[in-house]
Amino acid sequence: MAIWAWLIPSALVLLIALIFIYYYNKFVVQGNRIDNALSQIDVQLKRRADLIPNLIETVKGYAKHEKGIMADVTSARKALLSAKDLPARIKADNQLESALKSIFALAENYPQLRANENFLQLQSELSATEDKIAYSRQYYNDSILDFNNSIKVFPGKFFASLYKVHERPFIKITAQERENVKVKF
Amino acid sequence: MVERISFYDQIGRNKRNSVFLLIAIVLVLMVFGYVIGMIMGPDYFLIVMIASIIISLAYIWFGYYYSDKIAIASANARPADHTRYRQLHNSVESMALASGLPKPRVYIMQNEQINAFATGRDPKNAVICVTTGALEKLNKQELEGVIAHEMAHIANYDIRFLTIVTVLVGMIAILSEIFLRSFWFKSDNNGDNKAQLIFMIIGIALAILAPLVTSLVQLAISRKREYTADATGVKFTRTPSGLASALKKIKDDHAMPNHKVSKAVAPLFISDPFKKKIQNIFSTHPPIDERIKLLERM
Predict the structure, then answer these.
(1) How far is B236 from chain A (nearest CA, A)?
(2) So what's the ipTM on this one?
(3) B55: pLDDT confidence band, cut at 50, 70 and 90?
(4) What is the pTM of this model?
(5) N or C of chain B: less Cβ packing under 10 Å?
(6) Cα–Cα distance between B218 and A41 in angstroms, integer?
């Protein structure tokens, strides 16, 4: 009798403590997953920016007079590198994407450029990084969905307010971006 | 949301089942050791038991840590060159990003058939292997669908589970063999013949039934897993069309079945490397038409 009298309450206390720890860790793990996903997007954006100077060099050799488009690409790249937060970087990347589309469309007028091994390789690398950016954004949004779900449902909601964990925003695509990118000539 | 939960459930179940299987392997080995020990007589009992414990632990350790290397070696695969197979590497990297897992090592298998498999013990030590036939015959979207399916096997911890199952099946086959041969070395006797006879009968029954039962279990598990991996793969690519059209190509592909592949690793592949036409309880994979139908409904 005496044993049960303190065994049951202490087991309950232990159980409650474990629940508190469980939720704390869950938020930390899911939050870290989001941060990691974010850094993956940055890695891909950086890689894309790094490929640009090479592309400009290659294109210059064949299409000297197309300075306007080249300037567009360079300034989009600069905007991408100097953007402070993710929405700004995503926006800059979209600008870069449309500027790149113009360059690739331009290449149609320069058969020699189109046949250049280096150019073709850069083109496929750039489109591959664009795919990777899309996939890492998708995973980022998946991770945010998980995180937001777990802080919005009960009893997660209670622990979230206790630990002061807040909902995180998805990467949204603006209406303007959702339209097809216009190709300039 | 429902999809999401079942996805994590699947991972949890696979991890739990993996632990159960490991314990089962140890137990089965002990039983075999015990039976062999009893047949050989009390003089050998202790030695046989100790030997069986040591062998089982060593076997499990080796199988667990070297399974990926064994699978790669048995499939005769080599690492995929970064510049030559750039597109393959890009697809694998994309799918790794979509699943949020580290990029697995990429291997190429010289074979006409369209096929691929994943192996390893966890996502950090995983391998994806693709046949040259798949690289030649599939377009980018289809290849990505196939890789997403393999990535799903990795994400769901199917690779660990299948690795352990493969270790178990291989082990039981070896044991049954050893057991049946051990009659030749049986000590002829001191006393208690009746007990020895009973154990001998149990032993023979075990030796015959165990491999059959384990492989049936293995196959049933493996078929179910293919559907789950298809669904998880679609979650990564966000479109079922790539995988569906890859499966159609696999179905219509008339490349020679690959008999070089060891039977033990067959369940790891995306489609049955032996291309058996008849679907039964011995099939490693669910019917391909059924899989395509399900994908098209998503």
Answers:
(1) 8
(2) 0.78
(3) confident
(4) 0.79
(5) N
(6) 39
